[in-house]
From TrEMBL:
InterPro entries: MFS_dom (IPR020846), MFS_sugar_transport-like (IPR005828), MFS_trans_sf (IPR036259), Orgcat_transp/SVOP (IPR004749), Sugar_transporter_CS (IPR005829). It comes from Ptilonorhynchus violaceus (Satin bowerbird). This is Solute carrier family 22 member 3. Coiled coil: none annotated. Belongs to the major facilitator (TC 2.A.1) superfamily. Organic cation transporter (TC 2.A.1.19) family. GO terms for molecular function: monoamine transmembrane transporter activity; neurotransmitter transmembrane transporter activity; quaternary ammonium group transmembrane transporter activity. The keyword Iron does not apply. It catalyses: tyramine(in) = tyramine(out); serotonin(out) = serotonin(in); dopamine(out) = dopamine(in); (R)-noradrenaline(out) = (R)-noradrenaline(in).
Length: 549
């Protein structure tokens, strides 16, 4: 009986059929990255707002004030007496008298300086010039409530983390495409509820659920793509991430054209319903079917792939070799039970954590200073495009480990140099920091590919999901690490980033090289990866009755 990789080679490793599936599933990267970065535009700080005084509605009605006139009479007088006062988080704690003059409601205080009038902290009743432009103005996430905006992003990352564990496990047990489709439905429904959430609590609950389903769509589509192509074509795992960057580039355009946060939320959520049409055009992963003892279904899909690729499978292919290994309930213990699996799992978890922490830390630090938010966000996303092209050019020529290690080392050096460059050459600091951003982006994208290549089919989706969950943990920690350490010394976070990246650069050299090696089907195949390297580091092929490695 032929192995799966032998049948795939005959059916076409990256023919017209795989290209179509690849293109369709790649669109998921656009919607996922938009969800990932949406808080930048959903949570835009309002341009102008102030704390409305008690009874302001009655005063305005009695005096016929517009909102602008109300602000001029109730906020600006205090600002004239105390220039540090903006009227956003504090208000005058006085009795307003309009019986004398609507144009001088503070006349009863005579010549007393407004800077000496008593103040009270504002707890609610803020007024915004654009009340529905962002979730900040929608739910009053200002002043003492400003931390809730950070909470909304932390909740989303917690959703990513939960989705990696729960739905990653479900995809290995119940099928890739089933979980993908259910997750697309979940993202769309939760996204609509988030857009019309009546209060911030409902907003957080369904933003969390949208994160759960969103992470499942991204990880599952990635695994499907890498499982239906040959070993020489798994570079598609890098190319698909260009679509993630494409989503980053499209998002500011959407936000620029749509003035309300609800509109932006719907624009990034509704396209997920279109992915439900994939039920008729994207097949279940034949590799996964084989691990579930469904060889006939897998062979039927392979014949369909061959037909669309203009190929023809030999008529004696009545059955494909089925893996003797089946893991019905994958767990973390399955990922660390054997030496090679244990080493790979621990290193990959650290690599995911480090890449996410440094990536998000550098984005927040670099920011894009001042200027137009939409243009600045677009430029910051464009920095990531060269990363994918550099990987495509190098990874199939020199392998995975060297670019993986080098990108981490370069990021480490760039962070260290940036920390000690003088402040009077900001262009140089920005350039070197951008080099660090580019390098850690390369590391981030390579870890996706290497992660999927170092796990057997029976554990691949669960392994990728679990390891990548450390990415979400890094994303949660990054802002706290950055801002707390920067309060001690502005450049201290860069020193920490440099150390983390350097350690990661050396650790990944302990991983086996997977260039040109078919995806492992069983844990035994993974353990045999260590035997693929001679003293010169060259790979050699091994063949047994169950797989062609």
């Amino acid at each position: 009986m032929p192995s799966f990789d032998e049948v795939l080679k005959e059916a076409g490793e990256f023919g017209r059929y795989q290209k179509r599936v690849f293109f369709l599933l790649s669109q998921t990267g656009i919607t996922f990255s938009s969800l990932f970065a949406s808080v930048v535009f959903l949570g835009q700080a309002p341009d102008n707002f102030w704390c409305r005084i008690p009874g302001a509605a009655e005063l305005s009605e009695r005096c016929g004030w517009t909102l602008e006139e109300e602000r001029n009479f109730t906020v600006l007088p205090l600002h004239l007496g105390n220039e540090s006062f903006s009227g956003e988080c504090e208000r005058l704690d006085v009795t307003w008298d309009t019986s004398v003059s609507c144009t001088s409601p503070l006349a009863r205080y005579g010549n007393r300086s407004t800077g000496n009038l008593p103040l009270a902290t504002c707890h609610d009743n803020w007024v915004y010039e654009q009340p529905h432009s962002s979730i900040i103005s929608e739910y009053d996430l200002v002043c003492g409530n400003a931390w809730m905006l950070d909470l909304s992003q932390a909740i989303l990352n917690l959703g990513f983390l939960t989705g990696a564990f729960t739905l990653g496990y479900a995809a290995d047990r119940y099928g890739r495409i089933l979980i993908y489709l259910l997750s697309c439905l979940g993202v769309g429904i939760c996204g609509i509820i988030v857009a019309f959430a009546p209060n911030f609590t409902v907003f957080l609950i369904f933003r969390f659920l949208q994160g759960v389903f969103g992470k499942a769509t991204w990880m599952t589509c990635y695994v499907i793509v890498t499982e239906i192509v040959g070993s020489d074509q798994r570079i598609v795992g890098i190319v698909i991430q260009i679509f993630f960057t494409l989503g980053i580039l499209i998002l500011p355009g959407i936000a620029y054209l749509i003035p309300t946060w609800q509109g932006i939320q719907l624009a990034i959520s509704l396209p997920n319903f279109l992915f439900l049409l994939y039920y008729w055009v994207v097949p279940e992963s034949p590799r996964w079917l084989l691990t579930r003892k469904k060889g006939e279904k897998a062979l039927k899909i392979m014949r369909n792939i061959a037909k669309h690729n203009g190929k023809f499978l030999s008529p004696h292919y009545s059955e494909i070799t089925i893996s003797n290994e089946e893991v019905s309930n994958p767990s973390f213990l399955d990922l660390v039970r054997t030496p090679q699996m244990r080493r790979s799992t621990l290193i990959l978890m650290y690599a995911w954590f480090t890449s996410a922490l440094i990536y998000q830390g550098l984005v927040m630090r670099l920011g894009i200073i001042g200027g137009n938010l939409y243009l600045d966000f677009f430029i910051s996303g464009a920095v990531e495009l060269p990363a994918a092209f550099l990987i495509i050019v190098t990874i199939d020529r020199i392998g995975r480990r060297l670019p993986f290690a080098t990108s981490n080392i370069v990021a480490s050096v760039a962070c260290l140099i940036t920390a000690f460059l003088p402040e009077d050459v900001p262009w140089l600091k920005t350039t070197v920091a951008t080099l660090g951003r580019l390098s850690i982006t390369i590391a981030f994208e390579v870890v996706y590919l290497v992660n999927s290549e170092l796990y057997p089919t029976t554990l691949r989706n669960f392994g990728v999901s679990l390891c990548s969950s450390l990415c979400d943990l890094g994303g949660i920690i990054a802002p706290f690490l950055l801002f707390r350490l920067a309060a001690i010394w502005l450049e201290l976070p860069l020193i920490i980033f440099s150390i983390l990246a350097a350690v990661c650069g050396f650790l990944v050299l302990l991983l086996p090289e997977t260039k040109g090696i078919p995806l492992p089907e069983t844990v035994e195949d993974v353990e045999q990866l260590r035997s693929h390297f001679g003293k010169c580091g060259k790979t050699r092929k091994h063949r047994d009755t169950n797989s062609y490695i």
